[in-house]
Amino acid sequence: MKIGVIADTHDNIPKIKKALALFKKRECGIIIHAGDVVAPFAAKALKAAKIPVYAVYGNNDGEKKGLKDLLDIVDGPRVLKVGERRIVVAHSESQLTDQHREGADLVIVGHTHVAQVKREERPLLLNPGEAGGWLYGKTSVAVVDTGRLAIEEVSLD
Q1: Contact 102, 122 (CB under 8 A)
Q2: Domains in the chain and their CATH numbers?
Q3: Residues of the chain with pLDDT under 50
Q4: Is pTM, for the whole model, over 0.85?
């Protein structure tokens, strides 16, 4: 299965739509959002893809009830089982303990707005970067093939 990974969208609807189009084109079965959707209207845009979205709250997700009404979103860290893979999702790497990492195949974080893949580590660590583009002006997401545990970093610029 392929997973679309996105974080730090910060209400940027055009970039959310661009990411969702990419995820559909790449035939992603689910989307994981690593926090900072921000407002419910952005959550509505995510839901429009009709691909299941699993999310964690970020530090800028203030309207939690409004987001919860629209998304499958929880406080992180969140553990997901996707096929045979154990995936841990948190907004910030500082939320993770050794216990969270133990037994995980992939750890997904956001918060820094900087895309990063640590392939040499186990579990693999992925930060898809900022999809909103507000902080650094570079927008990115990732596509993960869970079978091969291959990560493709994709620019939305």
Answers
A1: no
A2: 2-155 (3.60.21.10)
A3: none
A4: yes
